[in-house]
Amino acid sequence: MAPRIDFQTDPSQLRHWRVEYAGEVATLYMEVDEQGGLFDGYELKLNSYDLSVDIELADVVQRMRFEHPQVRAVVLRSGKQRVFCAGANIRMLGGASHAHKVNFCKFTNETRNTLEAAAAESGQHYICAVQGACAGGGYELALACEHIILTDDGSSSVALPEVPLLAVLPGTGGLTRITDKRKVRRDLADVFCCIEEGVKGRRAVDWRLVDELAPNARFDEIVSQRAREFAARSKRTEDPRGIQLTPLARSIADDGSLSYSCVTVAIERDAGVVNLSIAGPREEPPACVEALTAEAADNWLLRCARELDDAILHLRFNEPDAGVIVFRSSGDPELLVAHEKFFLANQAHWLAHEIVLYWKRVLKRIDLTSRSLVAFIEPGSCFAGTLAEIVFAADRSYMCEGEFEGDDRPPAAILLSDANFGHYPMSNNLTRLQTRFLGTPENIEQAKAKRDTRLEAAAAGALGLVTYVYDDIDMEDEMRVFLEERGSFSPDALTALEANLRFAGPETMETRIFGRLSAWQNWIFQRPNAVGEQGALKRYGSGQRGVFDKRRV
Amino acid sequence: MAPRIDFQTDPSQLRHWRVEYAGEVATLYMEVDEQGGLFDGYELKLNSYDLSVDIELADVVQRMRFEHPQVRAVVLRSGKQRVFCAGANIRMLGGASHAHKVNFCKFTNETRNTLEAAAAESGQHYICAVQGACAGGGYELALACEHIILTDDGSSSVALPEVPLLAVLPGTGGLTRITDKRKVRRDLADVFCCIEEGVKGRRAVDWRLVDELAPNARFDEIVSQRAREFAARSKRTEDPRGIQLTPLARSIADDGSLSYSCVTVAIERDAGVVNLSIAGPREEPPACVEALTAEAADNWLLRCARELDDAILHLRFNEPDAGVIVFRSSGDPELLVAHEKFFLANQAHWLAHEIVLYWKRVLKRIDLTSRSLVAFIEPGSCFAGTLAEIVFAADRSYMCEGEFEGDDRPPAAILLSDANFGHYPMSNNLTRLQTRFLGTPENIEQAKAKRDTRLEAAAAGALGLVTYVYDDIDMEDEMRVFLEERGSFSPDALTALEANLRFAGPETMETRIFGRLSAWQNWIFQRPNAVGEQGALKRYGSGQRGVFDKRRV
Fold first, then answer.
1. Are B497 and A103 a contacting pair at CB < 8 A?
2. Is CB count within 10 Å lower at the N or C end of chain A?
3. Rounded to the nearest 5°, which phi and psi values hold at A30?
4. What distance in Å separates the CA atoms of residue A476 and residue B230, rounded to the nearest whole number?
5. What is the pLDDT at residue A500?
6. How many CA within 13 A on the CB side of residue A327?
C-alpha cells in the first residue's frame, strides 16, 4: 500500500512556503524545498511543485482567513533567485499514476480557486509579483491572483509551455483563465501557448497576460505600493483578531477507518463502499459572537467542516478503490438549525461569516469528488440545513419511511433552513435546490414554505427532495441492491456520468475548469503522445523529444 | 488506405430512411438496411446506425429545408416493428479506431443540432413518435426533437443504457439534453442512466423523459394531430416551393486533392498540411429573389457553402494526417459583399434566409473541426464578409503587407460587412468578433465603423483583426516556420488546446455537448474499462461482461 497522504499541516511544519505578516499586508514566499517532495524519484528544482507544496499552500490560504483575518492583501512571490515557479514537477507527473495526476490537478485547481474566493468573499486580495521564469503551473498560480506585476528586467517572462514541451495542457485553470478571466484574444492565446520560452516585457501587458510591468530597480517599491492600494480597497470593515485552527482530533485505525470528533469513516473494502457518518451538535449554539470567538476551532460547525474536508481529501487520494460514499448522519436536527440560525444572524461578524463560507467550499469539494455519492436518511438522522445540502449534493438519496422495528429513534426527516436557499451556491452559482429543480422551479418555493418543519419521508418525497422512499421491509434490500449495482459498473463511466449530471444549468469559470478543461486534460493524460513510452511527458528530461502519432482524432 | 467516406448522397440513393411528404407534414421513417453499413464486420440490426445512416439523415434534414420548405412539421418514427432505434451500432463502435469514434460522434452531434436548428430558425418542427425500444443513440435522436410521444403499450420504453451496458457515455448529446434541455431532475437522471431496460409508461412522462404518453390504439391519430398542431404553430408565413440541391461539381485526383467549382483542396501529405482555397464570385448577384430562385443551387453563396461543407467533412474523416488547414481565398471582395448585401436585404425571402442560415452551420462546422486552422491573407485574396468569418474562425491569421514582388494583384485586404456583426453566431451564441474581442469590446465598434472599407494589413492589424502582418521579405519564412512548428507538436495536445481556446465566453447546450460531454466521452473511449481487451465495449455481444479496474481516478 502506498504511504498515506496527509492533508493536515500547520505553520510549524512548512517546508515550501514562508509568510511574513505586516499588518494589513502579508507576503507569501514560494521557496520550494527540492528534497521535500512527497515521493521519491524527483527533486523539486526551480520552485516546481508536487502535491506536498500544494497541501501547504492550501493550508496557508485557509489560515490566512481564520488566523490572520486582519490581512487585506497578500503578495505572492518567489523566495528564490531568478525563478518564480517552473510549475508542476514534470518528473513527478511523468511517474505518477493516471489517478494521481487527475486528483492532483483537481486539488491544485481547488486551491487556486480559494485564492480568488478569498478576494471575492473576504477582501483578502492576492497580488502576484513575478521575477524570473514563471512557467506552466507557475503562471497558472499567478493567473489565480487578482493582479500580476511582472518585472521588466529583460528576461523575466510568463509562459504556458505545456503543449510544445510536454504534449499536455495547461490544465490547472490556465487555458480557461487566459480566455475567460483575462480575456486574452484567442489567436494571441494560441501563439502564447506555443512559445516555450514565454512572453516578457511590454508584450505581456499588451496581450493582457499580466496587469503591469515594473522597472526592475523599482520592483519592490511598486509591489508594496500596489499591496497597500489593494488593502485600502478591501471591502472588509472590521479589524478582527484571528482564531487558531488547532490540530484535528483524528485517529486512524489499522483497517483504514477514520474517527474524528463528529465525523467517522468506515470502509468496506471488498464492496468498495465508504460509510461516512456525521454527528450533529450536542452542545447549545454560542450565545453571542464573543462566545463563538472563544469556542474558536471547537465550534461544532467549524469543526465539522474541517473534519469533513479532511475526510473527503483522504478518501480521494488514499482510498481509490472505494467507489461509493454513503453519507449518514445522526443527531438533533432542530439543534443543528439553531446553530445555523446563530451564524446566519451574525453574518456581519467576520468569524461567523468565514465559517459559512468555509462550508460553501467544503460542499463544493463534495460536489467535485469523483465517487458515487449517496445519502441514506434513516431514523435519528440529522440532515438539516447545512447537512441537508449533502443530500442534494448526492447522486441519489434513499429515505426511510415510518417506524423501523426495534428502532426507537425519531423517524427519518429532512429539515430545511434558510441555509438551503442561497448561502451555499455550487460551482455553477446556483444553489443545489435550484440545480435540482431546474425543470420545476415551483418546487423551490414549495420547499421554502416548509422551512423549519420536519419533513418526514412522504412529505420529502412529495416535494422531490429525495430519490426514493422505502419502508422498514424494503429499505435494507434496496440499499444493498444499489450498492451492488454501483459496484458492478465501470468506475470511469460513472465518473464521467456524474461529472455531467451534477452541474446542469449555467456555466462559470469554475465549472468550465472542472468540466471542460479537466476532461480534456484527463483525455490527454491517457494519450500515447503524452504518456506512452515515446510520449513527450514520459520523455521529458531524457534529452529525447517525444515521438508523435500524427493522426488527428 | 481506407475507402473514402463520401458525404454526398441524394433521395434516390437512400437505403436507411424513407420520407413521405403530405403538404405541411412530412413523415420520416427510420428503416435501417442491416446490410447497408459503411464497413464490414457488423449488421445494422434493430435500427442501429453507423455513419452511413447519419450521412443520409443529415442529407434528409438539409433537403427538407431547401427542397421541401413547405414542410412545417416532421414526424420521425421507425419503419420497423417493435423497435424504434437501438442507437449506434456497438460492434461498429467496438471495432472502430479512436479517431473514427470521435469524429463519428461529432458528426452525429452536428446532425442532431440541425434538427433543433430547423425548428428554431425555419419553423420545421421535429416530433418524435416512439413505438418499441428507443435506446442509447435512439433516444438521443428523440431528444433532439421538440416533442416526444411515447406509446403506452406496456413495453415501449426510452433508455440510455450506455453506462451499465457498455461502460461509455450517452455522448451524442444525451446527458446534456436530459439535464439542460429536458431539465430532468439530476438524481432521476442518474437512476435513468443506470437502468438497462429503460423507463416506460407514465413514469417516462413524470420524469420529463418524454412529453406525452399515447394509448397504443390511438397512437397514429394522436401523432397526426400533434403534427398538425406543430405545423399550425410554425412561425413561417410564406408557402414556398423548394429548389433542387443538384449534385456537387467535384472531382478527386489520384493524389487526393479535390476540386469543386469554387473550392479547391490540395494536400501536402508529408508536411501534414491542407491548402484549401476559395474563389469568390465572378458573376453579378441575383437581380431579384425570382432570379435567386432560378439560380437555385448554382448561386455562388449556396454553392460555396455546400462545397466548403463537403470539403471539411471529407478532410475530417479521410485525411486524418493533415493536421493543419490553411485557408486562402481569391477574388473581388466588393463583388462578394454585393452578393451578401442582396441576401441580407432579402432575409424575408425563405431561400435567401436559408442560405445565410446554412453558412452559419458551415462556419460552426469549421469552428468544431479538430485541426489547426490558419488563414493566409495574400494579395488578391477575397476575405470579405462571410469569408472573413473564416479568418476569425482560424486559430491564427497571417496577412501580407504592401506590394509583393512580381505580384500585380491588389494588396491583401479584409473587407468587413454587416454579415460579420450578428448573422453568424458561433456555438457560444456570440459572433466570432465578439468572442475575439471579449476583453476589448471597443474593438468591435471600431471594426463596425470600418464596414465596407478595404482594410489593408496595417489597418487590419491595428484593429486586431489578424494575428500577424508581414511584408514581402518575411511572409514566406514566417508561414513556413509556423507550419513546421505546428507539425512538430502533439496532435492531441493541439486538439485539446484549440477546443479550449476557440469558445471563450458564455456556454450553451451546444458548447456543453462539444466541450464537456465530448471531452469526457473521448476520455472514456481511451479507458481500458471500455476499450481494453476485457472492456465492456469490446466485449459487448460476446456473452461475457466487461472486467473492470475498480479504482476511481
1. no
2. N
3. -90, 120
4. 48
5. 94
6. 24
